[in-house]
Amino acid sequence: MKIKNAILSDLEHLVPLFNNYRVFYGQHSNLDAARSFLKTRLSKKESTIFLALYNDKPVGFTQLFKTFSSVSLEPFLILNDLFVTPEFRNRGVGRALLEYAKLHCKELDYKGLELETALDNPAQKLYEQLGWEKDEAYLHYFWKNTGG
């Protein structure tokens, strides 16, 4: 297996993975929208995407976004997306992508990585095995713009 930093020429490898990721989280399949979203992120360098390949077949990805902590005055990364195709789950792909993201964070000398996940996501065990700590000190809120 190989992990690589995705570039614009990897877009067609990423689109089906990203679309399936969104479908996994209850969104309707939309390859054109997935392509447009990823193309914009990559073109504007608004995110970092790592692509996992097994014998040159795309089998997973993770997407990171840079942000800042006003309190600590340091940059950190939000691991927004992590997806592995069902047939390659439990084969170390997710672990490799997470470790690669941690290495990237260390190379940048950023404060750390943050992620959020569903309460029933079985990957929580993997996160904790790799040193991620569940934040029990803060609540997470989200305001949804419903227009007008």
From TrEMBL:
PROSITE patterns hit by this protein: GNAT
Entry's EC annotation: 2.3.1.-
Root EC class: transferase
Keywords annotated in UniProt: Acyltransferase, Transferase
Classification via InterPro entries: Acyl_CoA_acyltransferase, Bact_Acetyltransf, GNAT_dom
Gene3D superfamilies linked: 3.40.630.30
Residue span(s) of domain N-acetyltransferase: 1-148
Gene Ontology MF, one: acyltransferase activity, transferring groups other than amino-acyl groups
Protein name: Putative N-acetyltransferase YhfO
Organism: Flagellimonas maritima
